Description:
The chain is of the alpha+beta class. The chain has helices at residues 3-40, 48-57, 121-130; strands at 61-68, 71-76, 89-93, 112-118, 137-140, 154-160. It has 3 helices and 6 strands.
Amino acid sequence: xxxxxxxxxxxxIFATSLLLATASxxxxxxxxxxxxxxQLRCSTDPEAGKLLIDLRxxxxxDRTYIVEDTISYFKLLKPLxxxxxxxxxxxxxxxxxxxxxxxxxxTLPPEMIGIVVRGNxxxxxxxxxxxxxxxxxxxxxxxxxxxxxxxxxxxxxxCWSTREK
Length: 165
């Protein structure tokens, strides 16, 4: 048995497998990024359920880190780029997905989807305006990604449904 078959071939197989896995994750990440961008342009009512369930199934998110007013927040475990931002978390709510979205106290919110990004409110609004996006809710995020209340340096960007309940 040659040294090539002992060391080089297994290393080549490992490197090829790693490259294919990375390419597959990249393609999935681009698809999720496009889905978020489409929904965050708010030209139609958001549909967070399927997208967030797909993210969980692909290992991009895990369980919620906080539920506020029935809106579930999920920390990102893999990188995404959405509208030029690198979100640290995603969030949303959609009726009909009771087993996925945790129920908080109070009345149900409108259906919605959003991302949490690093920065300040003014710079995030400016970046969105430069992209021609004017109809999103942009506000400081009151929690860090561990679910603790804090001045976090994070900003929430959300598209809310316009349908009446």
